[in-house]
Amino acid sequence: MAIFGKDNSDLLHQILRELGELRERVTGQQQVIEQLRGDTTAALNTGLAETRAVVRDGLQRHQEMIGDPLNRISGELVAIRAGVNDLGREQPAPVQASTEPDREITVQAPGANDGDLLRAAAGISAAELQMHRDAWSFLVEHAAGDRHFRVPGSVKEVDGAVTVQVSGPSIVAALTSLQRVSSSDDEPGTRAIAEHLHRRFSETVQAVIDQPHRGDGADPVRIVIDDRAKPAGEEQSG
Q: What is the pLDDT along the chain (238 residues), one digit of tens a residue?
């Protein structure tokens, strides 16, 4: 004797079939979810990697854009200030009575009697200039207005001392500008600084005239502004 009637048996088979179909549907949806989860994780990882690469590239380009140009901008600002100062010098100062003894001042065209010196300076391909940053600022301030002077693209500074590479035309501009300042400026300190720098530049160029050499095989031209006292105990020469 059958426990279920025919109708109940058909209903049971239908229920079991629908349950099987439902199980297959759930299994398929789980597979789809797992696949989507994997795709999403991969996409997120790829996106993060691409974002990091873009950020690194942006930082590198930012550094390249603002690194070296900062030194050039600093030099250009000093040059602009020198130009403004030159404009102020163009206005003649009023003549004032002075009780100090008359000081004979002979003002002549910059480098008028230094043709050989300037020609020798022009022949220097490049020279290494070493001095304190304040002396370098003084030189740039007074020489930057000369059409032959070029502010170097980079300036190395260590403990307040700067090292720069300057060209022959820039040395010519330095000589003529320093000669002008030392001959015509009314401020004693300014004249003293200009005279000292001009003398040191002239001595270096004169050494090139006395012992000329072209091309490789000789030490590069170096202009060093760093006077010091001899150490204690060292014998004084001549």
A: 444 455 667 777 778 877 877 778 778 777 878 777 777 777 777 777 777 777 677 666 655 555 555 556 656 666 666 555 555 444 444 444 444 444 443 333 333 347 889 999 899 988 899 999 999 999 999 998 899 998 887 888 898 899 999 999 999 999 999 999 998 888 999 999 999 999 999 999 998 888 887 777 678 899 999 888 888 776 655 4
**Residue 85 located in a structural domain:** no
Cα torsion at 23, 25, 30, 36 (round to 10°)?
Answer: 180
Whether 236 maps to a domain, the answer reads: no
Does 124 fall in a domain?
Answer: yes
Helix or strand (DSSP H, E) at 131: strand 126-132
Domain of 59, in residue numbers:
10-68
Instruction: Specify whether the CB–CB gap between 146 and 153 falls below 8 A.
Output: no
| Same domain membership, residue 129 and residue 46 | no
- Determine the angle formed by the axes of helices 133-143 and 188-210, rounding to 10 degrees: 90
Shared-domain flag, residues 220 and 127:
yes
> Looking at the structure, do residues 48 and 121 belong to the same domain, yes or no?
no
Instruction: Record the tokens describing residue 15, joined without a space.
Output: 């229920």
87 within some domain: no
Query: How many domains does one find in the chain?
Result: 2
Q: Single out the residue of 160, 176, 179, 181 nearest to residue 225, CA to CA.
A: 160
Query: Residue 120, CB half-sphere, CA atoms under 13 Å: how many?
Result: 20
Which amino acid appears at position 109 of this protein? A
Please tell me whether residues 43 and 129 are part of one structural domain: no
